[in-house]
Amino acid sequence: MKTDFVAEYNHGLVEEEIQKNWNSTSKFSVKEDKSKKKFYCLSMFPYPSGRLHMGHVRNYTIGDVISRLKRMQGFNVLQPMGWDSFGLPAENAAIQNNVHPATWTNENIDYMRDQLKRLGFAYDWKRELSTCDSSYFRWEQWFFSKLYKNGLVEKKESEVNWDPVDKTVLANEQVIEGRGWRSGALVEKKKIPQWYVKITKYADELLNNLDKLDDWPESVKTMQRNWIGRSEGVLLKFNVHELEGFVEVFTTRPDTLLGVTFLALSPEHPIVEKIARDDNALSLKLKFWKKNDLRETDPNSLEKEGIKLDIKAIHPISGKEIEVWVANFVVSTYGTGAVMSVPAHDQRDWEFAKKYKLPIVEVIEPISPQFCDLEESAFEQKGILKNSGTLDGLSSDEASKQILKLLERSGLGEKKVQYKLRDWLISRQRFWGCPIPILYSKDGSIQIESEKNLPITLPIKEAISGRVKPLADYDEFKNISNADGTTSLRETDTFDTFFESSWYYARYCCFDSTEQMLDERVDYWLPVDVYIGGIEHAVLHLLYARFFNKVMRDEGLVVPDEPFKKLLTQGMVCKETYYRKVGSKIEYFSPEEVETEFDEKGAVFKAYLKKDKQPVVIGSIEKMSKSKKNGVDPEGLIKNYGADTVRLYTMFAAPPEQMLEWSDNAVEGSFRFLRNLWKLTSSVIGFEKLGQPLNYDDLNESQRDLRRKVHQTIKKVTDDYERRYKFNTAIAAIMELYNFTARFNIKNEKDKILFGEAVCTTLQLLHPVVPHITEALWLKLDIAKPIDDSWPVFDPSALTKDVVEIVLQVNGKKRSSIRTKVDLNNEEYEKIAKSDEKISKYIGDQEIKKIIIVPNKLINVVI
RNA sequence: GCCCGGGUGGCGGAAUUGGUAGACGCACCAGACUUAAAAUCUGGCGACCGAAUAGGUCGUGCCGGUUCGAUUCCGGCCCCGGGCACCA
User: Fold this and answer.
1) pLDDT at A172
2) CA distance A698 to A822
3) Cα–Cα–Cα angle for A723, A725, A728, rounded to 5 degrees
4) What is the pLDDT of residue A533?
5) Residue A5: which pLDDT band, with cuts at 50, 70 and 90?
6) CA A402 → C1' B74, Å?
7) Is the pLDDT of residue A822 over 80?
8) How far apart are CA A284 and CA A856, in angstroms?
9) Closest CA to A567 of A725, A392, A432, A787
10) Is A642 left (phi over 0), alpha (psi -120 to 50) or beta?
C-alpha cells in the first residue's frame, strides 16, 4: 500500500483505498475449479425499493462474513448478488411520478448497487442479474412452456379480490378493511379464469424432504409442514335421492361415522348454489354470508349459522335418512366443501347441533374413565366404539379400518390423503411483470408461445409518456397476426413475482448462458451451501423455490433434490420508539428529536421532546419503519463511522437469528474498538518475523499465557463462525484477546515476536467481519502473504497448562478456590479439599459423606 | 384455540456435554489529565446485610421435582414474540 497512513484511523481513506484495490483486480470473481472445494453462499436478493435499510445490511453482512471465512479456508467461494426487480412498487411509482417502471427500477438498482459496494461485500459482480431483464425472464417463459407441456400448468376459474375502480385483481395484502388500498373502493369477490401451477403434485415430496433438511431451523420446517397440511382420512359418499346424486365428504375420523346426524355444506357448494337459484330466502342468506367473509373474521367470535335444505342424505352404513344443512362454518376450499357432522365428537358440529336442536349421538367412549359431559361439550379424543352395532367395543383405530372396508365394499368410500396446500395462482393483472407466454386463437383454443418467439417482452414505448396501463390495454401487445393470416390474442396477465425468485439461485451459476436456461456449471455449484434471509419468507418463497428445484430436477436441469443445504434466518432490526397520544391518534417521534434522562443506575426514566421540552411516552422496541419514525439510515452511519464499524456492530450486537436492537451508543463502542485496534497494530510496525512461523521453545510463563490466549481464541472463533454461526461471541472472544494483548508487557525480543503474532492473529480472525481495516493494517505491517490467504489453525500444544484453578465447593456451593498442578489423582484432590482452610471451617466436625471430583475443575465436599 | 421460539444486571447479550451465573460491549459512577468541557486513561458496577477493599444471605419469569450440584433435565403455571387458524 503506497499511502502513508496517519497514526489515526481514517475509515474513509482506508475503505476507499482497499475497495479500489478489490475492484481493480476483480478479486471476488470466481469460476468453476474442480481442484478446489466449492462453497456457494447466497443471501436473498433485494427488491430495488430505493435505498438499503438496516435489514439488508444485516443480511448481507452475515453472508459476507461466512463467504470471507470460507475463502480464507481455501474454498472456491461463490457469492453473487442481484435484483428481484419486477413488482408492484415500481408500477405505483411510475404512475405517481410519471416515469416508466423500468426507469424507476434501474435508477434504484444503480443507487443500491453503490451502497452495497460501499459496504465492501465480496460479491462476484459479473454475475449480477436483474429479473426484469429479458435475458433472465426469457428462460422463465421457456420453463413455463415446459411445465405447460408436462401438464403442470392449468387455467381454471377461482375467486379473487377485484377492485372495480382500478379494474384489477388485488392481492389479499392489498385489501384493507374490505377496500382497495389505492382506490378506496369496496373490493368485490369475482370469479375469473386464472393460471395455476400444480404444486400440489409435489406435496408429498415437499413434505417428506423436510426431514432431510438437517441444517434448516425447526421452526421453518414446522411452518412448511403446517402449510402443506397433510392429513389422512376417508372420502365417502352420501346418496341424495332428490338430486339423483350424492354429496362427497372427507373425514379423518371414520370411526365416528355412526354418530353422523346431519351433513353440512359450505355456502359456495355447487349443490347449494343450484338450490339457491330457485330459493330467494336462501340466496339472500348466502349473499349476507359472503359480505361478512369468514376468512377475515375471528372464527371464535363468529356465530355459527345455517339453513336446512329440502333434501335428505342416506347414511352409507345405517341407510337412515339424515338432514342436509348449509352452514357458514364450512370452508369451501378445503376437502370437498362439505362435512359429515358428528356433534358428539366435534366441537363445531356440537355447537351447531345445540343451536338448531339437532340430534347428538355418542359413539365414542373414553378409554380410561374420565369425565366427559356431552351436555357441556363434544368429546373429540379417540376411544372405544358404542352405539355402532357390530363395531361396539372396538378401538377407534380398529373401527376406522373396519368402516373403511365396509365403505370400499359398497363403493361408497375410499382412502384419501388431503392437503391444505393449494395450487399456486401465478397470474397477475399487472404491467410490471414477466408476460405469460400464451396465445388464444379465435376459436378460443390455447397455445403456448413457440420457443423461437421468446422472450415476449413488455411494451416499453410508454417510456415517453410514463404512465402505464394494464397490459390488456395495449392493443399492439395483445393483437397478434399469424403467418397464416389468422389473428390471435396474447395473454395479458404477468407472472407472480415469486416466479422469478424461485430459480435465480441456479441462474447465478451460469449467468451468461444465452443458449440455455441452465448449463453444466450448475452441477459444480449447486446446491447452495448457506442461504441467508428473513424469516418472513419461511413459507412462500422458500416453498416455491424448493418446488421449482424439484421440477427443474425432473426436467434434468439440476441434480440435487433440495436447493438450499443450510438455511439461516436472520432476525429483524429494531429500535426504541417515542410517541404522544393526541386524542385517539398516536404521533411518533424519531429518537433524534427526543432527549432522555437517566436515573442513578443508568436506566432511562424520562424522555422529552427537544423542541418543546414536554414529556413523550417511551414506547416499545419495534421493527425499524417509516411510520414509527425509528429507522436508521445506513448511509449516514457509513459516512460517520465507516462500513467496518457498521458491519462490526451489526454482527456484535446479537446472534444472527435473534432480533437486533439498534443502539447508537453501542455503535460508538464498536468504532472505539477499531480505533484502538488501529493504535495497537501501529505499535507493531517494524517488528521482526511478523506473519512468519516461529520457534516456540523455552517460553516463560507470561509468554506461554499470551500464546495460549491466541490459540484458545483461534479455536473458539473458528467454531463460532463455522459451526455455531454465532458471530457475536466470536467478536467478544477477539475483543478479549485484544484486551489481553494490550496489557502484555514487552520486556525482550521474544516477547516482541509473540506480541506481533497475537496482533496478526487478531487481524486475521477479524478479517471476515471488518475486511477493510484489517487488510489495510496487514499491508501496513508489510507482510508478504495476503491476509485472506489462509485461516489460522490452533496449535493444541499451546492450549496445555501446568497450573489450573480448581473450585472448592461444600454441598454444591462455591466456598473457595485454589491453584493446583494439572491432572492430579483423586487422593491428591481429596487432600487439597480437606486441607483448605475455608473448606475445613465449613466442614467443622461434620461427617464427610462423599467427595465429588471433576478433574482440573471442581471438588465438591458433601457433608 | 393450535404449533413454534423466548423470559438471565440499568441495557444488548454470554455460560457449547448438568460443574465458579453475569464473558464481551453499552450506559452509569468515581478518580487522573484539563483553566473548563469533550476526548482519553485508571478503577468500580446483580440485590440485600455490613464501616469494610472482612464476611455472609439471596439471585437466571413463578411453583414443585430429580441431583452432591440445575440458567441447563422433568412436571405444572404465568408472561412476551412469531406463525397458522371453523382445515372436518
Assistant:
1) 56
2) 20
3) 130
4) 94
5) very low
6) 40
7) yes
8) 82
9) A725
10) left
> What's the whole-number mean pLDDT along residues A41-60?
95
Q: Nearest nucleotide (C1') to the CA of residue A232?
A: B88
Give the type of residue at A251: T
Predicted local distance difference test score (pLDDT) of residue A184: 66
Cα distance between residue A555 and residue A150, in whole Å: 10
Residue of least CA–C1' distance to B12: A653
Burial (CB count within 10 angstroms: exposed 0-12, middle 13-18, buried 19+), residue A123: buried
Residue A349: nearest nucleotide (C-alpha to C1'): B88
pLDDT, one tens digit per residue, over A571-603 is 989 888 888 888 777 888 888 888 887 766 666
pLDDT tens digits, residue range A453-508? 999 999 876 655 556 777 888 888 999 888 888 899 999 999 989 999 999 999 99
Rounded distance between C-alpha atoms, residue A411 and residue A408, angstroms: 5
The nucleotide whose C1' lies nearest the CA of A716 is B16
Residue A281 pLDDT: 92
CA A768 – C1' B79 distance (Å)? 39
- Cell for A617? 411516552
Query: Which stretch of A268-272, A362-366, A390-394, A810-814 has the lowest confidence by average pLDDT?
Result: A810-814
Residue A332, nucleotide of least CA–C1' distance: B87
C1’ B43 / CA A720, Å: 32
A540 exposure class (CB count in 10 Å sphere: 0-12, 13-18, 19+) = middle
How many residues in chain A? 863
∠ CA(A546), CA(A563), CA(A112), 5° rounding? 95
Q: List the A736 CA – B10 C1' distance (angstroms).
A: 24
Q: How far is the CA of A790 from the C1' of B27 (A)?
A: 38
Q: What angle do CA A637, A642, A646 make, to 5 degrees?
A: 60
Three-state DSSP class for A544?
helix
Exposure string over A720-741, b if 16+ CB within 10 A, otherwise e: bbeeebbbbbbbebbbebbebb
Reply yes or no on whether the pLDDT at A783 is more than 50. Answer: yes
A350 backbone dihedrals φ, ψ, rounded to 5°: -60, -45
Which strand B bases fall within 7 angstroms of a protein CB? 1, 3-5, 10-16, 19-21, 23-29, 40-41, 47, 56-57, 68-70, 82-88
**How many Å from the CA of A81 to C1' of B14?**
34
Q: Which residue is nearest to nucleotide B6 (CA to C1')?
A: A658
What pLDDT is attached to residue A174? 58
The pLDDT, as a whole number, for residue A7 is 67
pLDDT of amino acid A295: 47
Measured CA to C1', the nucleotide nearest A420 is B87
C1'-nearest nucleotide to the CA of A862: B68
How many Å from the CA of A417 to C1' of B26?
Answer: 55
Rounded, the Å distance between the CA of A651 and C1' of B12 is 12
Taking the C1' atom of every nucleotide in all shown strands and the CA of A738, the nearest one is B24
Output the pLDDT for position A502: 96
